[in-house]
Amino acid sequence: MGVAMRRGEQYLASLRDGRAVFLDGARVDDVTKHPAFAPPIRRIAATWDLAAAADAQATTTFADPATGRRHSAMWLVPRSADDLAARRRVHRLWAEPSFGLMGRTPDHVACVLSAFAGWRQLFDRGGTRFGDNVMRFYERARDEELYVAYGIVPLQIDRSQPAHRQPEPFLYPGVVAERDGGIVIRGSQGITTSAVLADWLFISYITPLQAGDEAYALSFVTPVAASGIRIHPRRPYAQTATSVFDYPLSSQFDEVDATVVFDDVFVPWEQVFIYRDVGLVNAQFHESPSHTLANFQSLVRFTVKLEFMAGLALKLLEVHAGERKPEAQAALGGDIAALCATFDAIVQAAERNPLILENVARPHPQYVYAGMSLQRRLIVDMLRAIRELAGGAFQQLPSSEASFTSPETRADVERFMRGATADARERVKLLKLVWDFVGTEFGGRQLQYEMFYSAAQPVVNTRMFRAYDWQKAKAAVDRCLGEY
Q: Which one of 132, 400, 409, 423 is separated from 357 by 20 to 30 angstroms, measured CA to CA?
């Protein structure tokens, strides 16, 4: 059977659902038309169309063995290294249109839900109806190609206290009442990236809950437009970008982080995956393949971003005729190319050497966590390398594109701002692109995102410690000691 893939226009129509998004104190009438949100929404819509193209479907879809219907590989429950390769291809398809700058595209939380479907036995421990709910929603999200965002990190209010000991009840999302048909949720979740752009939200906790937090020990999904949900985005960068020429990345690729408030939101039982179970909430991401599968997507996306960074670095040298200098080649080779190649090898190793448990293939945790541990350091080193290649060039840029059209300034900028291999406009265009990547508020958020999107460094390093085969390493030392 063929596949009817979601189209961009269908996605745009789905966002005109009356969702309560508030910006600068006012409710947004239509996020698809608001200048703060329209550019990234259009980018997502265009990628839906790209994914639906026949040539893309040949490599980024899979056939359901039960029905023969084809679905996007972002919903494939992997059973082998080849399945992980199919997932890698679809992750690249979604990452390349934004040059790896948008981390929470639809394929990210699809990893979480696919992993849950492959590990429903965890949710069955709370009652088989919850495992049924997981499977039912997974199949719906797969069939309808839903864009699901998630909020799994609590607000930073009092980090010394667990959820139930915050300054007042239900600052964190929790259940305040039960009804015959479902539960009522009150509270707020932070860092809900792409909530404005998504169809549904998945809400839970990745930070460990404690005994006494049972009212908060939930895992559920809800439409973004559900009654009682209010979305408060941080300041969107597209809104303040003066032009695409001056802010080429800020103006197009801001996926918009947001805080989501639940003001007594009703959630039907069939949308609940875990209910009042601290142990299951704490186990859901790491006992299931969810954490490794979702971070595999993140690492694939990061390889696309690294390739873009490498291209920026080379173009910086070329525009000033510096790429043939031995010291420049050494800098590009050691500071950039070596890191890019190393990271690509880590991703390939995670994919081609899966850990297969109960017929579900996980990208090997040893390599996933190695990539995550290195990633936050790589981004800092590479951004520093690009800044050093640019030197003082950023301080010499004209204030805006208007400098090239004004009769009073055009002659000066065209004469004095040209490069060795490019005219002034092309050189300035490149330098503004690089500055938007490394120096603007958008660039600062990109750095912060790469450093903290998964966890703080000690948390990631602890995961790496647990994933590494220390016994094999210790056995080599014991063998050496035993030989003399």
A: 132
Give the CA distances from residue 255 to residues 19, 329, 342, 353, in Å, rounded to whole numbers and listed in that order.
17, 34, 28, 32
On whether the CB atoms of residues 317 and 290 are closer than 8 A, the answer is no
Lowest mean pLDDT across 140-154, 193-207, 392-406: 392-406
Same domain, 91 and 142: yes
pLDDT in tens, 336-345: 888 899 999 9
* Parallel/antiparallel/unpaired status of strands 182-190 and 229-233: unpaired
8-state DSSP, 183: E
**Domain of residue 279, residue span:** 149-283
Number of H-type helices and E-type strands within the chain: 17, 15
- Give the DSSP letter of residue 408: T
Mean pLDDT of 245-270: 97
In the predicted structure, residue 96 carries a pLDDT above the cut 80: yes
Q: Which position has the token pair 């190793």?
A: 349
How distant, in Å, are the alpha carbons of 81, 202, 407 from that of 109? 20, 8, 51
* Other residues' Cβ atoms within 10 Å of the Cβ of residue 449: 17
The count of other CB atoms within 10 Å of the CB of residue 84 is: 25
Q: What is the CA radius of gyration of the chain?
A: 24
Residue 479 lies in a domain: no
Whether residues 314 and 380 share a domain: the answer is yes
pTM of the shown model:
0.94
Q: What is the CATH number of the domain that holds 418?
A: 1.20.140.10
Output the pLDDT for position 3.
58
Are 14 and 59 contained in the same domain?
yes
Mean pLDDT of 207-217: 95
Largest CA distance in the chain: 84
428 belongs to a structural domain: yes
Cα 423 from chain centre: 37
* Domain count along the chain: 3
Q: Is residue 481 part of a domain?
A: no
pLDDT tens string 300-355? 999 999 999 999 999 988 888 777 788 778 778 777 888 899 999 999 999 999 99
CA dihedral 231, 237, 238, 239 (to 10 degrees): 70
Query: Rounded to an integer, what distance in angstroms lies between the CA atom of residue 308 and that of residue 100?
Result: 8
State whether 331 and 259 are in the same domain. no
Which regions of 333-460 does DSSP assign to beta strands (E)? 355-357, 360-362
Whole-number pLDDT of residue 331: 76
Query: Is 105 inside a domain boundary?
Result: yes
> Mutual orientation of helices 290-319 and 424-438 as an angle, nearest 10°?
150
